[in-house]
Amino acid sequence: MNFNLSEEQEMLKTMARDFLADKCPKTLVREMEEDEKGYPAELWREIVDLGWMGLVFPEEYGGSSMSFLDLCVLLEEIGRACLPGPFFSTVVLSGLPILNAGSDVQKLEYLPKIARGEAICTLALTEASARYDAPSITVRATADGDSYIINGTKLFVPDAHIADYLLCIARTNEKAEAENGITVFIVDARSPGISHTVLKTLAGDKLCEVVFDQVRVPKKNILGQLDRGWGIVQRIVEQAAVAKCCAMVGAMQQVLEMTVNYAKERKQYDHPIGSYQVIQHYCANMATDVDGSRFSTYEAAWRLSQGLPGTKEVAIAKAWTGEALERVITLAHQIHGAIGCTIDHDLQFYTRRGKAAALSFGDGDFYREIVAQEMGLS
Description:
51% of the residues lie in helices and 15% in strands. It has eleven helices and ten strands. The chain has helices at residues 7-23, 26-34, 41-50, 68-81, 87-101, 104-115, 230-265, 277-305, 311-336, 347-359, 364-374, and strands at 121-124, 140-144, 147-158, 165-171, 182-188, 194-198, 207-218, 222-223, 267-268, 271-272. The strands form three sheets. The protein has a four-stranded mixed β-sheet, with helices on one face. Strands 2-3-7-6 form a four-stranded antiparallel β-sheet, with no helix packed on it. It starts with 6 loop residues before the first helix and ends with a helix.
């Protein structure tokens, strides 16, 4: 059994860490939380030039033909650096679904734009219930000639204020069972009838309320099949959950290293606080949670990358990692003391963003239910 990354993955990891350490200091992260767009155009262009936007797309679409597992390695470093911007929403929430479920025409139209950094995309999934099950989808799409008319409100849509395209999940058949009447639409974000409001969030990210008011979408913009979109949504949520876990693992690793370094340097009663057993045990518990989260996350990522069934593994990873991050952050704050609670300290970035990430695409209880179902307990 070999848990090591491949040589190519190690190179990607090292390159990404060095690049982000240089180009994405916490001063930039602070600045982007207050910025209207939420990302720096110059850094975005450099990321495009590195090939990150097309990392998992085939070469015919301007990509590098790397795997979902390779993308997860990159996402861990992105989480470690708190990279601001629409990378996750464009690549994970939009690019991968188009790659997985799109027609040849759709792939040729949208994937090269994403790879070249010419299109920012996002997913309009969540509604007022904030759940990730089929009955929660109430936004409607009604047939009208060669188009569909979409009406309703989506909440917590990342980066909708700067998006060029939205993947909108809508109900197209009211009479069918919840899972059988859902369709995914590729919507031009500048279509008449679309409005958005940027929400104030704990994480300082750009989540939006998006209102669809008589928005007309051509039938050719259906992703996959009419009324058969729930399978696409399930795959999106699984990949997004694992991707969030990778970002959380990167955040935990950074918090652990920050905390261990602080424990070595901070002195109390003429001794580094790391010399006291209670602090040592706190750090050991943090390291245990980091490694446990990494192993469960990468098992799930590997299964999805190989096209293997991974519902149970994804659920275990997301349920564990979100709560492990909370434990790691809590111990980090206890070790840092008052300084770690100030807005000027970097720890607060991981505290705020970690809470949001743990809830994204389902919290621990949501995924424990799935694990139970996979064990035949439902």
